[in-house]
């Protein structure tokens, strides 16, 4: 299994890139969001990858974080969502956006992705809602990644540690704290997702306070 590709970016196409790794070129398909985040051709680049294996086809799909890759794998497990649709959803919402939409049951947000209809979006929400807290918790086990300075000449294909952005880490810390307070994974995830949606830059302490307000008994 090819879990990560690091090397020199040779070119960008409409839906894929070519990465040179010690003289071997790897075609990696990416979402619009990932494509926009990549450097110019000739620069060093590293992407986490998922390999799709079919009888007549091998395709690599690239992601900037392992959290994003995990959402891709989960989305692909939903009948009616293939690799193209999964990349469309991630491209439209981003990894954190997908997590919030799934946790909050916001099928309309998922359906904004090109080629994804309401029926498929609702199916994704139904099948993945109980898994949102697991993906969110991944950020709490993450460490920052760096691209080797000499990636153009000495880069290798390798497996690496989990990586997630700082806002994902804040949400993971908040989820852990609510779990320690006795809240169930589903209700905690939904509250944190709602709080993060209202204040995307919130740190863990702010998310916890906001989530506790949302979870407080009404009336």
Task: Provide a quick synopsis of the model.
Residues 1-64 are annotated as: Domain I. The chain is of the alpha+beta class and 219 residues long.
Helical content class: 40-55%
CATH superfamily of the largest domain: 5' to 3' exonuclease, C-terminal subdomain
Shape: globular
List how many beta strands DSSP finds.
5
Distance between the termini: 53 Å
Average residue-wise pLDDT: 83
Regions with little confidence, pLDDT below 50 for 5+ residues: 142-166
- How are the strands of the biggest sheet laid out side by side? 1-2-3-5-4
Alpha carbon gyration radius:
18 Å
Number of helices: 10
Order of helices and strands: EEEHEEHHHHHHHHH
Keywords: ATP-binding, Cytoplasm, DNA damage, DNA recombination, DNA repair, DNA-binding, Helicase, Hydrolase, Nucleotide-binding
GO molecular function, one term: four-way junction helicase activity
Protein name: Holliday junction branch migration complex subunit RuvA
Subcellular location: Cytoplasm
What does this structure look like?
With 219 residues, this protein is of the alpha+beta class. Helix 3 crosses helix 6, helix 8 (166-180) packs across helix 9 and helix 9 packs across helix 10 (204-215). The relative contact order is 0.13. It is built from ten helices and five strands. Helix content is 48%, strand content 18%. It has a five-stranded mixed barrel. The chain folds into three domains: 4-64, Beta Barrel (OB fold (Dihydrolipoamide Acetyltransferase, E2P)); 66-132, 5' to 3' exonuclease, C-terminal subdomain (DNA polymerase, domain 1, Orthogonal Bundle); 165-215, Helicase, Ruva Protein, domain 3 (Orthogonal Bundle), CATH 1.10.8.
């Amino acid at each position: 299994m090819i879990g990560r590709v690091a090397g020199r970016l040779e070119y960008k196409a409409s839906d894929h890139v070519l990465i040179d790794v010690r003289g071997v070129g790897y075609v990696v398909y990416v979402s619009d969001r990932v494509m926009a985040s990549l450097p110019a051709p000739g620069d060093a680049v590293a992407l986490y990858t998922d390999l799709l294996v079919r009888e007549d086809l091998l395709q690599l799909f690239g992601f900037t974080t392992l959290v994003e890759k995990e959402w891709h794998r989960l989305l692909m497990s939903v009948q009616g969502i293939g690799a193209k649709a999964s990349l469309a959803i991630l491209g439209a919402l981003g990894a954190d956006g997908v997590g919030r939409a799934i946790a909050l049951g916001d099928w309309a947000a998922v359906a904004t992705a090109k080629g994804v209809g309401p029926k498929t979006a609702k199916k994704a929400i139904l099948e993945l809602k109980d898994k949102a807290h697991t993906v969110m918790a991944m950020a709490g086990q993450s460490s920052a990644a760096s691209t080797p300075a000499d990636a153009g000449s000495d880069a290798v294909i390798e497996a690496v540690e989990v990586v997630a952005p700082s806002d994902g880490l804040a949400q993971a810390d908040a989820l852990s704290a609510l779990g320690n307070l006795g809240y169930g994974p589903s209700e905690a995830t939904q509250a944190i997702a709602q709080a993060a949606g209202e204040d995307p830059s919130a740190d863990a302490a702010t998310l916890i306070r906001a989530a506790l307000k949302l979870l407080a008994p009404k009336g």
